[in-house]
Amino acid sequence: GVAIRVEGILVESPMSGQAVELKATKITIFGDVNAKDYPISKNKLTLEHLRKFPHLRIRTKIHAALARLRNSCSTATHTFFQMNNFKYVHTPILTSNDCEGAGETFNISNTIGTECEPFFGKNVNLTVSGQLHGETYASALSDIYTFGPTFRAENSNTSRHLAEFWMIEPEMCFIDLQDLMNITEDYIKFCLKVCLGNLMEDIEFFDKHFQPGLKKQLQTLVDTQFKRMTYTEVIECLEREIQEGRAIVRVKEIENKKFKKLAKGKHVFEEPVFWGCDLGSEHEKYMTDQLVNGALIVYNYPKEIKSFYMKENSDGKTVQAMDLLVPNIGELVGGSMRIDSHDDLLQKMEEKNISIPWYLDLRKYGSVPHGGFGLGFERMIMLISGIYNIRDVIPYPRYPKHCEM
Q1: For residues 269 and 282, is the Cβ–Cβ distance under 8 A?
Q2: What's the rounded Cα separation, in Å, for the pair 160 and 376?
Q3: Distance between CA 403 and CA 397 in Å, rounded?
Q4: 385 CB-near residues (< 8 Å, 6+ apart)
Q5: Using CA atoms, how far apart are residues 182 and 20, in angstroms rounded to an integer?
Q6: Per the count of CB atoms within 10 A, which of 21, 332, 334, 357 is most buried?
Q7: With bands split at pLDDT 50, 70 and 90, how would you rate the model's confidence at 234?
Q8: Do residues 339 and 347 lie in contact, with contact meaning Cβ atoms separated by under 8 Å?
Q9: pLDDT at 229 over 70
Q10: What is the secondary structure of 35-69 as a DSSP string?
Q11: pLDDT at 34 over 80
């Protein structure tokens, strides 16, 4: 942890593992450290232990590499959308709508004065998504994207969820579902290419210390077209795995001893699989890791399990929604075509008792076919780094009972 300045002669290194070394002629100490007190020891520390020191963990090799990766992916994101003529839009963090279906909201105490009068004159919460506001700009500028923090007040303690995280949400006009899937794939591959081209030393570090084979996996994702399956095809595939004995669903009624015997040598699903179920991460990872061995785009989901604004298919049962699933993580991207008919959207909102008048106005005044997706930025960092706890890939993780600094 000592901060120093070293002057000397830079020479070719006779030792393996480094190209050059500095033969010091003068060393100046700027900031000394008492090694007994310094919490980041020379010994290898677990990522969980390092979370106790969010202000110091950036000084480790792993978090420095993650910071470079976040920087590179941020730059790649702006480069991709700008080179494709998207406009960058700043959507609000404080909002009076909650983008129904996106997640639980953090309500803001916005009272003012002795009478506790609401500062904004109404209830306000932290945004869970910039999508609805993004649609307003897309209706005028055509193709836009947002890139900012979002907040979910969910008591989730999984390795994939945070209360505060960053989202990338493009919204595009005059496209269809196939276009949406193509743009999603192109964007992901662009970011992977940039990181493989600019951060190979860091990726090799992740490959060596955290996920062997990571570099090969990332290159395969770049070189291989993402497989596409309908939701119905995925359900049929999972049901076939169960029917043919390669997987089994845990049933609470089965005694433990009997279950262990039944489950021997089989993959165990904690939740049942049926048409209409909301695919869990266990189902998603089984598809990507066991059956597809790569990225998978699932589309045409049952309308009952998706949000009110998603455009229905002609079958009356499914909506034009798509999710991109990736190995070891599950869902990386979620998107859909939006309902562009005023009457259809009004009917949906009335059925679900939702009232957002200004959102209806977008369909009332010059509506166009449009769609978009949302990508959790931290999950993309997980994919590229091979570090699969989301608390380790964001500078200052916020999750239940943890908001240090």
Answers
A1: yes
A2: 10
A3: 7
A4: 65, 66, 69, 206, 210, 214, 393
A5: 44
A6: 332
A7: very high
A8: no
A9: yes
A10: TTT-SS-SS---HHHHTT-TTTGGGSHHHHHHHHH
A11: yes
